[in-house]
Amino acid sequence: MIPLHKDLQKAKENITEFENITKRVLQYLPDVISSCQQKNDYLIYSSEIAGTTKFIRPINKTLFIDDVTTFDKSYKQLLAILNKIKTGAEIIDSDKDIIDKTLYTIQQSIGAGLDLLVNPNSARKHVGNRFEELIKTIFTEIGVANKKIILQIPYETEEGTKTYKCENDLIISPFGSVKSSSKLLDEKEVVVSIKTTSKDRMGKMFIDKILLERFVEHPQKVIGIFLNDVQRKEADNISFTLVSGLFMVYSKFLTELEGVYYLDPPPNANKKPYSNYMRRFSELLTTDLNRILTT
User: Distance between CA atoms of 230 and 215, rounded to whole angstroms?
Assistant: First the structure.
């Protein structure tokens, strides 16, 4: 078995690999956590090793499963629920809770491990990469065709035609396989922006939607998927990073996205009018996805 810090930085290709890394971190954390501060529903863990204190990103205690045995049970339930979604079986409210809690635990376990074992610059990159891989894996598990696409957009210069590479985190499709390519996007497919936080990234989704629609010359569906919008503030506090007013201005005066989804929604996401646009990730999988893909 490779060392934990290398495993955390290794790309994950399927749901089993995410299960395994989560269990490794959940077994590791109790041995290295030195203290814990609580702010509202969030826990701020820290670890002191060799005189150096390292902090773990804020953990939502209402979502995070900190026990390996409990996680194992929840993970098995998740697999059954994903199969229910794939086959069109009835979904109940408790299923949605299992989806959000299990996936949140997977992602935040990876984030916690990287916070403790990898230098911060590298950790940020790998946290984002693992989140993209996790979301891609979930779409694959429920039978939704998906693919990462880099759209090549040509433009003219004095030196001749050059190409702007517009990277889309993921394309999901109602078809058996993704029809979009580096030269065009299929109108029925959906561009998915996958980020751990909307901080400094919210505007890019709106601009990309406008840019894509002008280039492909047809309406293009775009959704955003975020982990959360919360960050640690000093040693014992948190702050929320969603600029909700700016989101509404973009939605009203630039363009409107087909949806924004969180595993851990910030407080404003649950209030009107933001709740008209922002929902839990489980709502995407169980309620909205079929509508978005078929309209």
Answer: 34
| Residue 237, SS3 per DSSP | strand
pLDDT of residue 239: 95
Query: DSSP secondary-structure letter at 10?
Result: S
What is the pTM assigned to this prediction? 0.96
Residue 63 · residue 74 · CB < 8 Å: no
For residues 175 and 104, give the distance between their C-alpha atoms in angstroms, rounded to a whole number: 28
Per DSSP, what are the bridge partners of residue 280?
262
Separation between Cα atoms, residue 241 and residue 265, nearest integer Å: 11
**What is the rounded distance in angstroms from the CA atom of residue 209 to the CA atom of residue 43?**
36
- The model's pLDDT over 211-223, given as tens digits with 9 standing for 90+, comes to 999 999 999 999 9
Burial of 252 (C-beta count, 10 Å sphere; 0-12/13-18/19+) = exposed
Closest CA to 189 of 223, 164, 215: 223
Decide: 231 and 58 in contact? Cβ < 8 Å. yes
Residue 1 has a pLDDT of 85
Spans of the chain, pLDDT less than 70: none
